[in-house]
Design a protein that fits this description.
TIM Barrel, about 260 residues, globular, eight-stranded parallel sheet, alpha/beta
């Protein structure tokens, strides 16, 4: 059984002391493809270098809503650099993570929206999908996607959408990726939400080093734990974990145009 972790942060500083060892252990554990997702200029650069160093690693480049600067002038400089990074490597398979976050940042909503829209423009120019981060901002996120079409679509990473908003995201053609939170004992309506997602639109991820699934909560997360996410989806959908692995692997390869 092989697994594809569609969103990890091997570029994060929490892996600085043992990154090469962890990457080898991840691959030996059967996670034979994974994406190291950028969230600012520095992490996007590191992710790109990792994807060039390891055949089975792919990467994304983007400015997350929690990493945008305070002024438009600084934003343009960052976005120019992100586009430059994305043009440098065929192993960069998406623009992301990008989106809106009103949980951590309520004072700069308009600048967040601008950064999101401009990075959609970059994705369209480069014919790449997007990786979407949205927290406490789902309605605005959906509205932007309705009015700014992404030609290669994308994925809601570590998805927290519920009910009609989840339905709208799926109807717009986006993939839905689940991470450790679906295993948490206090997660509500998880079964209903997972069952809303068609098998051909579902992905799995760790968002490591964060959000370790049960029973690993409180420890540093890494891509080996994507098996626990796959197991939860298998239980909810009443299919085997091998089926979940195959379905999500093929879906990730299709979305990110990986052969």
């Amino acid at each position: 059984m092989e697994l594809f972790d569609s969103h990890a942060h091997l570029d994060d500083e929490k892996f600085n002391d043992d990154r090469e060892q962890i990457i080898e252990e991840i691959y030996q554990a059967g996670i034979t493809k994974f994406i190291s997702a950028g969230y600012n200029v520095e992490s996007s650069e590191i992710a790109k270098k990792l994807s060039e160093q390891y055949e089975f690693i792919y990467s994304t480049a983007g400015i997350s809503p929690n990493d945008i600067p305070q002024t438009e002038e600084e934003l343009w400089k960052m976005l120019s650099k992100i586009k430059e990074i994305a043009l440098q490597s065929r192993k960069i398979v998406a623009i992301g993570e990008i989106g809106l976050d009103y949980y951590w940042n309520k004072e700069n909503k308009e600048l967040q929206k601008l950064a999101f829209i401009k990075q959609i423009d970059i994705a369209n120019e480069l014919k790449l999908p997007i990786v979407i981060h949205t927290r406490k901002a789902a309605e605005d996120t959906i509205q932007i996607l309705k009015h700014h079409k992404v030609f290669s679509k994308g994925v809601f990473h570590c998805c927290s959408l519920k009910g009609d908003l989840l339905r709208q995201a799926i109807e717009l053609g986006y993939y839905i990726s689940y991470a450790g939170p679906i295993t948490f004992k206090n997660s509500k309506n998880v079964e209903e939400e997972i069952n809303m997602v068609p098998n051909d639109k579902i992905l799995i991820e760790t968002d490591s080093p964060y959000l370790s699934p049960e029973p690993m909560r409180g420890k540093r997360n890494d891509s080996r734990n994507v098996k626990l996410v796959a197991q939860k989806i298998a239980e909810v959908k009443k299919i085997s974990i091998e089926d979940v692995a195959k379905i999500t692997y093929e879906n990730a390869e299709k979305l990110f145009a990986i052969k």
